Amino acid sequence: MSDPAVFLWALGRVAGLASFASLSIALLTGLALRTAVLDRLGSNRSLRAVHEYTTLLWMPLGALHVGALLLDDTARLRLLDLLVPFAAPASVYGTRGVVAIGLGTLTLQLFALVAVSGWLRRRLPGAAWRWVHRLSYAAFGTLFLHALLGGTDFGDPTVSALTWSVAAALAVLSLARVLFGRLAA
Questions:
Q1: How many Cβ atoms are within 10 Å of 163's Cβ, its own excluded?
Q2: Sign of the CA dihedral 164, 170, 173, 177?
Q3: What percent of the chain is helix, strand and coil (3-state, nearest 5)?
Q4: Residue 130 and residue 163: Cα distance in Å, rounded?
Q5: DSSP codes of every residue in 7-23
Q6: Per-residue pLDDT tens for 117-139?
Q7: CA 143 to chain centre
Q8: Percent of the chain having pLDDT more than 70?
Q9: Could you tell me if 11 and 63 are in contact, meaning their C-beta atoms sit under 8 angstroms apart?
């Protein structure tokens, strides 16, 4: 690989991991606002501030991830692959690659829908906004699978441990929220 190709590949990886971290924090703090699990660490105001900041932070990081991969000749990502899930040619990416790219496209579309609904929150009925906002959990699931199938960094024990830990924490907190409602601090 030439130096520009290595740079774009590394930039795409780093931006993808940073976007994943930002979205993980956004989901964990959003869930913490509804479960009272982190009440001892800070007020709802500070949790909400972190939630809102990281919710906005993923967007430029995700755009950088996608932009770097679009420019990277090695990745061979097409604009169509960002718009139509699972449209990538299997002859270029293989079945696993097509699924990974398709999940990334779905992730982007779901999180974009959640973000737009957040901006329109005051104009939407409360129940509709909550249901759209809950799509962030499905989007995190597709993001996790996208990273697992397409990311080269899951082979690193630190990255793997952190991502699996976040997924487990979200699963446990989500299940607790569904079963027990708002938990006492």
A1: 22
A2: negative
A3: 80, 0, 20
A4: 26
A5: HHHHHHHHHHHHHHHHH
A6: 988 989 999 899 889 998 999 99
A7: 5
A8: 92
A9: no
